[in-house]
Structures are given as structure tokens and as C-alpha cells.
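WARN  no MSA supplied for this record, continuing single-sequence
INFO  ligand: acetamide
INFO  echoing inputs
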Amino acid sequence: MKKVFSLLLCAAACICAKAQTGPDVLIPKPVSYTLSKGSAPVGVPVKETIGSRKFASAIKDLPEFAKKEAYRLTIGPKNIKIEAEGQTGAFRARKTLEYLRAFAGEEGSLQCCQILDYPRFAHRGLMFDLSRHFYGKDFIFKEIDLMALLKMNVLHLHLTDDAGWRLQIDGYPLLASRAAWRPQLLWADWDEGGHNYSQEGAPDAFGGYLTKEDAREIVAYAAERHITVIPEIELPGHSLEVLRAYPELACTRDGEPVFTSDLCPGNDLVIKVFQDILDEVMDIFPSEFIHIGGDEAGMGAWRECPRCQERMRRHGLADTDALQSWLIRQFDSYLASKGRRLLGWDEIMQGGLAPGAAVMSWRGTEQGIEAAASGHDVIMSPTTYCYINRNQDSPLENGEFVGGYLPISGVYSYDPAQGFSNTEHLLGLQGNLWAEHIPTVENLEYKAFPRAFALAEVGWTPQELREFEEFRPRAVSLVKYISSIGYSPFNLERELGERPESGVALQHLALGAKVTYNIQWSPKYPAEGAESLTNGVQGGWTYVGGRWQGFESDMDVTIDLGQTKTVNFIGAHFLANIGDWVGLPQRLEISVSADGANFVLLPPVLCQVNAPARGSCYLLLGSFLDNAQVRFVRFKALRTGKLHEDWIFTDEIIIK
Ligand code: ACM
Ligand code: ZN
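INFO  complex generated
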């Protein structure tokens, strides 16, 4: 692996050639540097000094985590000097030098300079979801190489989920031989096909797992690059694959196992099995943190399960949140007894946070802020900035994705410290790549890069030195470089940007008109409240941006134009994203009135368009009139048939 990539590196070197390469090309941007006269050919000798008093004095005021990674790189015309406190700092310096040399090319030269550099945050992570699609270990080695270049230092592996268990566990062999295999290659087909599993070696078995040897190789490969691998073993939710292999770990109804995605927290066997599993996991992964998931448990079966009910009664647990919290505490103390620390998604706060637990804040930033305020360490990975599986450009061009629109500028705009009154417990940030719609390594790299460049810089570079417009050209250059060494990033130079309509103010007869909601908008997606549908403001690519108004039901509003007007068209814009349960209305019922009492129903508008199964679409649906005299419009957008459970999103009702 190593060999392949260093060869690629040489082959690619000349594509970026320029006369003199200086620190201004680097991502992440260094904390400080000074330029000096002259330049050095790329091949001058390098001397490393570890642990000198002089360097210790230069970094004496830094926090301990930053000292560990700090380095000083001095490029002179005849020699290059690296200074660091230990091997991690020296490694980061070598990566800086490798970056500069790669950009200079064999024929180029390095601008003489001195760089003093260290990270803003201790945790600068990326998460790969190996469950939804399994890519194998070579892919991980490849991505670790790039993480190292970006000075990222934590690789979080989501190893278990409903769609497949991905780690050999000797004590529970069915996890690898059964739960790691499914009859469909693609997650979407598996999801639609009823969540079935297969058997290792069967002709219809897709998937796979990391053997213990594979996992150890990954840990070692990462460690050589000063990257820590944090394994995630999900519990109690997202565990259907475990239950299908070991049904005795499920809740029961009338004595039969219930196959939700949740393990049974009432069952002592669940605790025993997962302690055994964690023993094997800890034997492979030396990380301080062990991630136990903890997100999105449905908890429904717990309410009826005799064992869960008995557990709640015996321990005085008021509700299922408290039951989950009780379970997490068992693992918190178990991991602590082994000298490790429990890390979990922010739902582990519900029902009370276990004493030693650290929190990965994903649903928003407020959970992390709250956990830190109560003395728990936190890692920020809020969906709105850090879910880099989201769509990064026009969804009309970008294929499959879930969630909203998250361009690289959005990722870069994140300041993890925002909202924290004290950052003592803020360890850093992490980008997550959930893989439901990431079937290949190429697609993963396309989604990960260049947005991970932005995350790397957010995590490393002081906030006051960061500016997107200055970062972007560096990112464009790095995209070119990594493309030349075998990665497949999104081509940032071809970015289309936000939906063009979103910046354009609409002009129409209902502008500023009063809207009465016969059915209220969802409090989750209010947009601008009662003014949203007549303010001329159009939404962006995503329903998440605060411009699209969402209805978790049919839409039904009445508009008062203030006076009678001559009307020829009444319609509205709709957004659909079927993957996120946002649909197009199937039927519009529009009625008009001159007096607000007597309404005339126009012929119903039937939506003739099927929203694509994947990606987003945008549609203007409406009805033409013939110089009608109208003051009041009742506008109903109805969900019917199969799509009756989908949300409806609209940004404007347009009357012409
Ligand atoms: C998550 O995205 N469910 C952690
Ligand atoms: Zn139960």
C-alpha cells in the first residue's frame, strides 16, 4: 500500500509545479510563518531535533495536546530543520514538508521560511460508516494517507449497524458469518427488500467484515501516521443485524423475539454479550475512547417487554430514556474499569449522562454545549456543518444523497467553539460520512473531499486566521493534486453553488399578502413564519435552510390579496426529496373568492410528475385562470395515495 502511494506521489509531483512553493499553499493553514530570502531545491537534507529546550520554550504557553503536535519547520537554502517536542509533532512537520515538496514538483523549489505550527483542537476526526456499504481495508489505508496529509488525527469507524456487522468477534461468530452478509449489494435495495441477511459463502452474500488481523493492521497503519482509530459498536439501537444472528438479545412479546433495531436493555445477557464483545474490541483498538453508539433507539418494544418493564421497576426508572441511560451507565463503568472511556452520540444524554461519558454532538450544537457545561468532554459533529455525506452542490447534478445542502463554504463557516462559554471540555470536531448512499470508494471520496479539507482547517487553524475566500483557491489546488495521485474528489472548480433562484426576489400579485393557515406549518420548518409564502423569497437546494416552509400534513392556507385583483395564474413552488420523506403534493384544490365567503373551486390540479426516488426536485404547480376577479384564494396541497405520509415543502404561493 505504502509503496503504491509513494509512487503515485512522485508521478504526480510535476503537475503542480511552480517556481517557488511557500506555506501559503498549505491546508490546514499554519498558525504562523515568516518568509525569508531565497529558496531551497526540494531535495535538501532534513535534520530533526526532538525535545530541545529552545523549542520547548517556544511552545511553553500551549495546552498539552497542542504541544504534542506542535512543530517548527525551518527551510533554509541548504538545509531544512524540523523541531518538535516528540514524534507526533515531528510527523506533522514531515507532512507539511511533503505537501510543499509535492506542490513544488521535482523541478521546483521551496521558498525559504520558518513555520511554527500547532492545532487549535485535540480531536480532528473523520468517521466512515462501514456498515451500510463495506469497502475493505485497502480503502481505509488510502484515506488514512490523506488524513495524515491534512493533519487529521482521529479515524472513527462505524463498524456495526442494521445493514451489516463489520468486525470479526471470536466469541460470537455469527456476527461475522451471518450479520455481515446480506442478499443485496446496495443499501437502498437491502432497505427496500425487507432487511434480510445472508450467510458467508452463500451465492447471494454481499458485504464482509474486517478480520481481527485487518483491524490490527488498520490500527497500526494509522498509529504510524499519528492517527487514533476509535471503533464504534452500536447499542442499544441500530442493532437489527445482531438480533437476527442472536434473537435471544431481542425484547419479547408473548415469549417471541421482537425484531425492532433495539437490543433488550432488560436482559442481563445483552450486557454480558456486549461486555464480551467490547473485551475483544479493546484488545484490538488501543484508543482511550470506545464509541458505543447510543443514537436513535426506537424504544417502542421496551414499553411492552416483560424484562424491560421488570428492569425499570426494579431500578425505579421512570421511562425508556432512563432505561437507556441505565444501560449506558453499565458500559460506562465497564469501560472505565478497563481504563477506557465511553463515547456516544448525544442521545446518551437523555435520561441522564453516565458519569465518565463523552458526547459526540450530532443533532445540533446545543447538546454538546450542554454536556460540556456539565463537565463532560464533547466532540462536535452537528449535521448542519459536519455531515459531509450531504449534498455539496446542485442536487440536479449530484446523484444520491440524504439530508440537506452542505457546500464546502458551509463546512468552513463552522466555528466549533461558538456558543461555548468555556471550551475546556471541547475536544474538537469530526466529519461524518454516513454511507447509505455511498456505494463505492469513488463516491465516498467525491463526498469526503474537498469538504474534509475544510474540516481539517477548522480543527487546526486559529479561528481569526480563517477566511473562506482565501481558503478556496488552496482547496482547488489540493483537489487537483489529490486527483493526480488517485483520489476522486468533487471538482471544486466546477461547483455550481446554491440554487440560482434562491437569490432572486419574486414579483407577483400576492407579495406581502396576509396568509391564514387553516393547517399550521410544522414548528420544525417554520421558514419566516406567516410571511414565508408571500414574501417573494425563494428557497435554496435544501428544505433545511429556513426558506422552505414544511407541513407534516396537507397544506391548507387562505390568502387575502387586500383588494380584488385580476388574476391569471395561481400556483406554488414545491420541493421533493423522497429519500428524506419529502414528497410532491398529489393534488391541488384551489378556490377563489371576491368576498371571502363564497368560494369557487377551480378544476383540481393533479401532479403528473413522479419525484425521483433519489435526489431532489423542484416544481411549480398551479392553475391558469382567465382574467378572474379575485381577492381571496384558498390553496390546498394534498397528499394522497402512497405518498400520504410524505412532508410537503413550499417556499412561495405565486399569484399572477
Ligand atoms: C447519527 O447520525 N444517527 C449519529
Ligand atoms: Zn426488552
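The chain has three domains: 4-117, 123-468, 500-655.
INFO  checksum written, moving to next record
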